[in-house]
Amino acid sequence: MYRKILVALENGPADGTLLPHIAALARQLGSALLLVHVADGFAARNFEQLKLAESDEIRADREYLEKTAATLRAGGLTVTTLLALGNPPTEIIRVAAAEQCDLIALTSHGHKLIADIFLGSTIEKVRHNTAVPLLVVRAGTGSG
Fold it and tell me: How many domains does the chain contain in total?
């Protein structure tokens, strides 16, 4: 059913909640995983326009993706990585379409309405702008 799953990673503790769920699902279904992190700092958002060199943030994010992919590959999974630069919801939607992903997996932090208004909700922006199904795992819920 899900041949290719886009796994949106934050490069933070929430990934530890999401990855066990997705690894188990991928094993059961024989799905390939595409690990995506969207670097969204100043250098990342202006990388092309200002012809910037890779920042420490971008290098660290790339290393994190590769390390995470290696761990999943060691568990027998098919994994590719992509470091996108810019606005996270926009890039997740773009990559999911370009890579023909069947499912987008993300974590939720359980913000309340007021926090989402001020912080913005990647999940809300993604779900309203894609037809690809979403799997949302609440951060900190452990692996089921």
Answer: 1
